[in-house]
Amino acid sequence: MKTVYRKSALSAFILFFAVLAGLFFFGRYPLSVNASAEDDKQYVYDNYGLFSEEDVNELTDACLKYREEAQADIIMITSNNLGGKAAIDYLEDFYDEKGFGYDEKFGSTVMMLVYIGEDRRNVTIHGYGKAEYYVNNDRIEHILDDLSPFLKEKKYKKAFVEFAKESAYYMNESEGVKEAPASNDPDSGNYYGESSYDGPSNYYGEEKESPFYNTLVQLGIALVIGAVSVAVMAFNSGGRMTVQGKDYMDGSNSGILESSDDYLRTTTTRVKKPTPQSDDGPRSSGGGGVSSGGHSHSGGSRDF
């Protein structure tokens, strides 16, 4: 009887742990499947062959990281042959063919194409879905400002990572954005990629341009404030002199004996003239439009 009881207890014990193991396994397995499916999705299309396999893997990791922050697909493309198409048409057809999107097909996506041909080198950026509004034409121009130095120096990998980072930043920055319907008239000023402009944004890296965000400047200001404070305290802590110069001066025998004005040197300081930037409206290279598949987008393009 005791033997039967022990076998039953052992069977129940094994069954209990089998159920626990099953719950643990099946609880984790769907996540593994989803992650695997997501990993199979291609984000980097190095058609030109600029990057090593390691570089492509690192760029893919950047796409996945900033994709989550942006809630939008981040797509990177290089090419030396656009098949006779303009860059804007090439990207539009690419989007129509692949159906990118974060949580749905033909959804929020930011794409960047670097074209390196015999006649020219060009970079083009498009924003689809929600990115049409948040990575609008104005913001794309600011992204291109930041990428141009890297591209000119052939630091393509760094340029693509910066593109992903700034795309994620703007997808989470609502200042200066309104999700207003666009006009299909290119001359309306309210065309695709333009309708969302609602004044200047908190542009990426803008705070870094202010000298007050510079550590050395902050340290210098702190030292000056400290020195002034110490000087004031030292002045107030000592006795004040009550005797003045006039107490030792004989007015009847004092006067100016001689004066001279000697030329020493001329000093000239050159200061770089700042480039004026208008705040009257958005900046745009006019890259917005609608693909042949009917998908509207923002855009901007620049040679480098």
How would you describe the overall organization of this protein?
This protein is α/β, with parallel strands linked by helices and 304 residues long. It has a domain at 38-206 and 286-303: Diaminopimelate Epimerase, Chain A, domain 1, CATH 3.10.310.50. The chain is 43% helix and 12% strand. The protein has 8 helices and 6 strands. The protein has helices spanning 2-40, 53-70, 87-98, 131-134, 137-152, 156-171, 206-209, 215-237, and strands spanning 44-46, 73-79, 109-116, 121-128, 289-290, 296-303. Strands 1-2-3-4-6-5 form a 6-stranded mixed sheet, with helices on both faces. α2 (53-70) runs parallel beside α6. The radius of gyration is 33 Å and the shape is globular. The N and C termini lie far apart (88 Å). The chain crosses the membrane at residues 216-236. Keywords: Membrane, Transmembrane, Transmembrane helix. Residues 293-304 have a biased composition (Low complexity). Residues 174-195, 266-304 are annotated as: Disordered. Residues 44-166 form the TPM domain.
Task: Present the secondary structure layout.
Elements (H helix, E strand, L loop, with lengths): L1 H39 L3 E3 L6 H18 L2 E7 L7 H12 L10 E8 L4 E8 L2 H4 L2 H16 L3 H16 L34 H4 L5 H23 L51 E2 L5 E8 L1
Parallel strand pairs: 1-2, 2-3
Antiparallel strand pairs: 3-4, 4-6, 5-6
